[in-house]
Amino acid sequence: MQASLKFVAGLVGAGAILALASGVVLHREAQQRDRVAAEQMTGGNVERGQLALTRYGCTACHDISGVPAARGSVGPALTGIAEHSLLAGKLPNTPDNLVRWIREPQAISPGTGMPDTGVTERDARDIAAYLYTLRRGSPDK
Ligand code: HEC
Fold first, then answer.
1. Half-sphere exposure of residue 74, counting CA atoms within 13 Å on the CB side?
2. Residue 92, strand partner residues
3. Do 141 and 67 touch, CB atoms closer than 8 A?
């Protein structure tokens, strides 16, 4: 290969690596923004919420991105919930309504397939924070 061709090939390679690296950085920044926004909206903590989903057994009924044990199919998959306009087909999707739904689904929708599981206000805020980081296309597990 001619020296000048090698130089061009090197430039193209370096450009591809840079593009990939900046893609990764931008993706991380977007994730970080989603996370801060979710915590501000709910007053909860994303990591604690992720753990609470398993502790309260939500995983038995829901498929939830980022929660390995969450493969349940009794209820709807919760990945992408951040982008839904209604919760359980009836409540406007606001942070306070999500917290309410998590704490007392039976009071909101008597007879619904989702049981009250005794979630505390604080834990419900953490769970809501985690759920609001989930967009359509969030990685599965
Ligand atoms: C026994 C099964 C079961 C368990 C346990 C359960 N859910 Fe549900 N969940 C459901 C069902 C069924 C629905 C659909 C309810 C409806 O539309 O009336 C639902 C709906 C929801 C919704 C609304 C989803 C949407 O697409 O609108 C959210 C959010 C939710 N559950 C979160 C949780 C969380 C958080 C926990 C744990 C604290 C939990 N669920 C535990 C069965 C369950």
1. 10
2. 86
3. yes
| Ligand 1 binding pocket, CB closer than 6 Å | 56-58, 60-62, 74-76, 78, 81, 84, 87-89, 101-102, 109, 112-115, 117, 119, 127
What whole-number distance in Å separates Cα of residue 117 and Cα of residue 139? 27
Q: What is the total count of domains within the chain? A: 1
pTM > 0.85: yes or no:
yes
Domain that holds residue 21: 3-131
Q: Is residue 139 part of a domain?
A: no
Q: For ligand 1, atom 37, name the residue with the nearest CA.
A: 58
- Alpha helices for the chain (secondary structure H): 3-42, 46-55, 95-103, 105-108, 121-131
Structure confidence by residue, pLDDT tens digits, 19-40: 888 888 888 888 889 899 999 9
SS3 87: strand
The DSSP bridge partners found for residue 71 are: 63
Segment 87-96, tens digit of pLDDT: 999 999 999 9
